[in-house]
Design goal:
The structure is a single chain. The chain has about 200 residues and is an alpha+beta fold. It is built from 7 helices and 7 strands; from the N terminus they run ααααβαβαβββββα. Strands 6-3-4-5-2-1-7 form a 7-stranded mixed sheet. It starts with a helix and ends with a helix.
Length: about 200
């Protein structure tokens, strides 16, 4: 077996194991899933780690084979919940991102929403005024290689965790990434998410 073939086989094995971890254990962070998978397989060499697209493909295949109908029902329920929250937060131009949008959300998935506003403090005031319990935090995203540390709020709605990341309205024109080398984060506004539910 050639060295190149061995590397490809190792990447594939790590991607499949990472997909299992994300589907069964609810791990949402790709970096954490691939490192844990590599460790479990005794393959700690970082050069062999698959990229997020490879893990996504393995995850979709795993969910299609082993979780089929359950996965479709889970995604529908999470998207319906996301829509309710997005309607409540319509003043902040909410956009859905992450695994609930992509359709790969696991059993412990977080609903990720990006809010776009010219007044970041207004989001916290909204939560206070509506007596919504929340936790403050920060979210790190990248515009190109420039890191952006953004205010974030974690809330729980009907048993589901929701992460609200607050951005400036001008950021709608910016491609944001979770890592400097990663792909642009996909996001969908309310009407687009509603359209997803209308699809068979």
């Amino acid at each position: 077996m050639s060295r190149e073939r061995g590397r490809d086989d190792a990447r594939s094995a790590i991607a499949i194991q990472a997909a299992r971890l994300m589907a069964r254990d609810g791990i949402e962070n790709y970096g954490h899933a691939k490192r844990k998978a590599a460790q479990q397989l005794g393959m700690p060499e970082t050069g062999r780690l698959p990229n997020n697209d490879e893990i996504d493909a393995a995850l979709r295949e795993y969910q299609g084979i082993y979780q089929g109908d359950d996965q479709m029902l889970r995604i529908r329920a999470l998207r319906e919940q996301a829509i309710r929250v997005m309607r409540d937060l319509s003043a902040f131009n909410p956009h859905l991102t992450g695994s609930v949008l992509s359709g790969t959300a696991g059993p412990h998935a977080v609903i990720h929403l990006q809010l776009f506003t010219d007044n970041a403090k207004a989001v916290e005031l909204y939560l206070i005024d509506h007596k919504i319990t929340y936790r403050t935090g920060q979210s790190r995203l990248y515009a190109g290689h420039e890191p952006r540390v953004l205010p974030a709020y974690s809330v729980t709605d009907s048993g589901a965790d929701i992460e609200l990341t607050v951005l400036d309205s001008r950021d709608l024109r910016v491609s944001l990434r979770a890592t400097p080398e990663g792909r642009a984060i996909e996001r969908a506004k309310l009407r687009a998410v509603e359209n997803l539910l209308e699809q068979p």
